[in-house]
Amino acid sequence: MKPELVRILLGCLLLPGVLMGAALPLRAGVVDEPYLTNPRAEDWPAHGRNYSEDGYSPLAQIHTGNIQALGLAWEFPTGTRTGLEATPVVVNGVMYTTLPWSVVLALDAKTGKLLWQFDPKVPRAWGKRACCDTVNRGVAVWQDKVYVGTLDGRLVAIDAISGKQVWEVDTLIDRERWYTITGAPRIAKGRVVIGNGGAEFPVRGYVTAYDADTGKQAWRFFTVPGSAEGPFEHPELEWAVKTWSKDSQWGALGGTAWDSFAYDPELELLYVGTGNGSPWARHIRSPGGGDNLFLASILAIDINTGRLKWHYQTVPGENWDFTATQPMTLADIEFDGKPRKVLMQAPKNGFFYVLDRATGELLAADKIATANWASHVDLKTGRPVETGLADYEKEPRIVFPSAAGAHNWQSQAWHPGTKLMYVPIME
């Protein structure tokens, strides 16, 4: 097989009567809030399949009794030798996915036939600004549009049937700084939400919501303060700044929301995972100490106003590129004999967290990989208990997990029947 021919393997049983139907044109309005809450079984209309980002398919045709009959349904030559990280979205028999350089494809999900291709023409020089390849993790679909964030910081709405651009907005606050977008947009209450990457270079993190029909900005939430004295773009920064030392390296402190989001339409809360500090070393970034909010945090933001309802910081004073941008899953479970609406995440730092998604209360935090930076998480305070074994301020240390994390951008899945979470872990 040629190196540039990357196979997209679709689980197609070599048995009669189980193939997907032919791709149909996307009907206007087919993707709405009820649909993203509870999609049709045969579709995968969002990055994590639904608003809860549970990554679970109810299809039951493939199982342990017939998996040996699986074969290759089709393959599509992508023409690239670089990374493919997109989760394909499937609506009404059409698969929407992305390639490097933010190129969008619409394929017949049964045959692999190319229906259209959209190239946002990202300047190739922008590639040097990307820490980790020119990858893209996919699209969002809403009503009759497909949305993609481009490597050079644009958010583009595409007509789902024709593949033609409908609108485009520049999401960047400063095009001279090395911002990128590699994550997939999300839809929440008729708004398209996108963050950005680039904390290593460095930049200041934020997440923005745009009207899905027009591209008009609804609100923007900055994840770290811009200076010690302000101005503060929203009230949350007035108390976040107190967790930074006054001699911090203001203007580009990191905290980029470069990958995962989840949304609860009942609570109307958008959940945002934030990234690492810039630079990583906290004794350089914020010499006087402090928790450095909102680095390495889970934020619950009111989708209507852009105001913060609660936050939980997984790594106060983040020091190792231990981001909390990894996938988040929403579920309803029984905890200590009581029904709880929870958010679950396995971020880079080697722990698995369960939070009450309405209040932010920490319910559980347990190690799921080797982690020498902290012994445990104190459930009363919600804070990790650092061991000092990973403190590299005065001498080199071997740190577990590595900067790649115990869990990174790779998807996780929640089985609502067995109540088991499946997480890929790196040791």
Can you tell me about this structure?
- The chain has about 425 residues and is mainly β.
- Helix content is about 5%, strand content about 30%.
- The chain contains three helices and 26 strands.
- The strands form eight sheets. Strands 3-4-5-6 form a four-stranded antiparallel beta sheet, with no helix packed on it. A four-stranded antiparallel beta sheet has the order 7-8-9-10, with no helix packed on it.
- A hairpin with a 5-residue loop joins strand 13 and strand 14.
- The protein starts with 10 loop residues before the first strand and ends in a 5-residue tail after the last strand.
Q: Which overall shape is indicated by the principal axes computed on the Cα atoms?
A: globular
Specify the structural class.
mainly beta
Q: What would the average pLDDT be, to the nearest integer?
A: 93
Which percent range fits the helix content? under 10%
Q: Could you give a short account of the major beta sheet?
A: 4 strands, antiparallel
Rg over CA atoms: 21 Å
Major β-sheet strand ordering: 3-4-5-6
> What is the straight-line distance between the termini?
31 Å
Q: From the structure provided, what is the oligomeric state, counting identical versus distinct chains?
A: single chain
* Strand content range: 25-35%
